[in-house]
Design a protein that fits this description.
The complex is a heterodimer. Chain A is of the alpha/beta class. Chain A has one domain: 3-Layer(aba) Sandwich (Rossmann fold). Chain A is 23% helix and 24% strand. Chain A contains five helices and eleven strands, in the order E-H-E-E-H-E-H-E-E-E-E-H-E-E-E-H. In chain A, strands 2-1-3-4-11-10-9-6-7 form a nine-stranded mixed sheet, with helices on both faces. Chain A has a two-stranded antiparallel ribbon with strand order 5-8. In chain A, strand 10 and strand 11 form a beta hairpin. In chain A, helix 1 packs across helix 5. Chain B contains two helices and three strands; from the N terminus they run E-H-E-H-E. Chain B has a three-stranded antiparallel sheet with strand order 2-1-3, covered by helices on one side. By secondary structure, chain B is α+β, with helices and mostly antiparallel strands. Classes of the chains: A alpha/beta, B alpha+beta. Chains A and B meet through loops of A and helix 1 and helix 2 of B.
Chain lengths: 221, 79
């Protein structure tokens, strides 16, 4: 599987994501800079990492979503290429219009950095086939703006069509309906606040994140 | 020509920052503050022929996230 990781000024989980992808796919991803205008030919997967792209100026993910490479990412998304946005990557995907809703300041105002329990709400997506439906998994979060909000009609539509993939099994940040991760209508774009790339090896305290990448490898490759 | 863009959270959208400011005001002994909402002010210095619809475009495409925010544009010829 040929993968790519987008790097913005202020990304800080790009290396973690690259290490996770290399471990699972056996091949290091192409690291693609925000000013590039094209993705590597024949890329099978694009990861948008966590961090604080452009210093979170204006709104988290807002500047990154308007950068040259994201135009190419949007084109790839429309062609059906699987795309995963983690944390700041999720914020970038909503700002770019690839996913509905917005990620606002945590309801409790504090930055939240700890492992959290998630319920796998839909194990039938490209990204979640490594999990059992309804399974509880443990993956760390580390964010200030993870409070997912959308209007009620959008939330109802997400729920009814199985697009809520991960839900917090505990109160974390005030997200509407405790949503932690959603996919787009076509099912090839996943945004999630928890960091699966930080739960790959036993030394991380959980390997539940690894199964996301393994499931993806199985479905894509 | 200058324009000021006021960006505010839509009514009903939770504003944790406004809440924190509210608590801090109460902590300082200011009573009678019913609610606080925090927003942003962006000042633009523009070419004289910039149209209203150009500025609105800027707001919709970047300055505001219309999922959660409203914007208001105030133009002034001088200052």
């Amino acid at each position: 599987m040929k993968t790519a990781v987008i790097v913005f000024p202020g990304s800080n989980c790009d290396r973690d994501l690259a290490v996770a992808l290399k471990q699972v796919t056996g091949r290091a991803p192409a690291m693609v800079w925000h000013r590039d205008t094209e993705l590597p030919d024949g890329v099978d997967f694009i990861g948008i990492p966590g961090g604080f792209s452009y210093g979170d100026y204006l709104r988290s993910g807002a500047m990154a979503a308007r950068s040259p490479i994201v135009r190419a990412v949007v084109d790839a998304a429309n062609r059906g290429v699987p795309i995963l946005g983690v944390c700041n990557g999720f914020q970038v995907l909503t700002e770019a219009g690839l996913l509905p809703g917005a990620l606002m300041r945590n309801a409790g105002i504090n930055f939240v950095s700890r492992p959290v329990k998630l319920t796998v709400e839909n194990s039938q997506t490209l990204f979640s086939s490594g999990y059992e439906q309804g399974e509880t998994i443990r993956i760390p979060v580390a964010h200030h703006d993870g409070n997912y909000q959308a209007d009620e009609a959008t939330l109802d539509r997400l729920e009814a069509s199985g697009r809520v993939v991960f839900r917090y099994a505990e109160e974390v940040n005030g997200s509407a309906r405790r949503i932690a991760g959603i996919v787009n209508d076509a099912g090839n774009v996943l945004g999630m606040m928890p960091h699966p790339e930080r739960a790959i090896e036993s030394a991380h305290g959980s390997t539940d994140g690894r199964r996301l990448f393994e499931g993806l490898l199985e479905t894509v490759a | 020509m200058k324009a000021r863009v006021f960006i505010t959270l839509k009514p009903g959208v939770l504003d944790p920052q406004g809440k924190a400011i509210h608590h801090a005001l109460e902590g300082l002994g200011f009573s009678g503050v019913n609610d606080v909402r925090a927003g942003k002010l962006i000042e633009l210095d523009l070419a004289d022929n910039t149209s209203d619809s150009d500025i609105e475009d800027m707001c919709r495409k970047l300055l505001a996230n219309t999922v959660i925010e409203n914007f208001r544009i105030e133009r002034s010829a001088d200052a």
